[in-house]
């Protein structure tokens, strides 16, 4: 039932004219995966490869995502994967607030149909959809319940392709998923995370700089 509704939603998205990205896309990249699914990964926006194939997270960032999922005992086939916006921003620029807002309804309908136990946000833009104003360096790897669902912010895999020191951080964060899925009430407030990890301002600034220094997710992987 959910699969049929997701298929219908993808067909609806394919013709969407609701923001400026409709004029420059090759095709929409709505998302892939089963429904329901325990885990839903949500990135930022399609890049050139995704625009060409219609599939999210292909290329090096997608391969790293597959490895990260495997480190958590998951395969891509078990996870629903989507982006905040379904069309490629030209030149791989950041999606604009009005584009994110225009696409938000599709994402909310996808989440309702996939009904994940855990939403994994990948990168700062995806994180900001749930935690505006937060720093990914401060809150990555800690799940918090938002409107009844656990949301776990993580770095974008593309950032780890350009900053090797982020790779073990991503692996460690993904490896928390099995325990979270087994005990979904085991969320840890961000404040606890900050205290446990050390002096917050310096750590957050350094990690934030690392994400910001990385080129736009999926963009440079041409
Ligand atoms: S990004 Fe979303 S709202 Fe904008 S045209 Fe594509 S599907 Fe429609």
Gap from first CA to last CA: 37 Å
Number of domain modules? 1
Detail the poorly predicted runs. 191-207, 213-222
Return Rg in Å.
16 Å
Q: How would a textbook summarize the main sheet?
A: 5 strands, mixed
Annotated CATH topology: Uracil-DNA Glycosylase, subunit E
Please tell me the CATH architecture by its name. 3-Layer(aba) Sandwich
Q: Kindly name the structural category.
A: alpha/beta
CATH superfamily annotation: Uracil-DNA glycosylase-like domain
Q: Which band does the percent of strand residues land in?
A: 5-15%
CATH class: Alpha Beta
Tell me the number of helical segments per DSSP (H or I, 4 or more residues long).
Answer: 11
What is the β-strand count? Answer: 5
Mass-distribution shape: globular
Overall helicity: 40-55%
Give the SSE string: HEHHEHEHHEEHHHHH
Structural account:
With 222 residues, the chain is of the alpha/beta class. The protein has a single domain, classed as Uracil-DNA Glycosylase, subunit E, CATH 3.40.470. It is 46% helix and 11% strand. The protein contains eleven helices and five strands. The chain has a five-stranded mixed beta sheet, sandwiched between helices. Strand 4 (144-146) and strand 5 form a beta hairpin. Helix 1 packs antiparallel against helix 4 (97-114). It is globular, with a radius of gyration of 16 Å. The chain starts with a helix and ends in a 9-residue tail after the last helix. Residues 191-207 and 213-222 have low confidence and may be disordered. Residues 13, 16, 18-19, 21-22, 28, 85-87, 99, 102-103 line the site of iron/sulfur cluster (SF4).
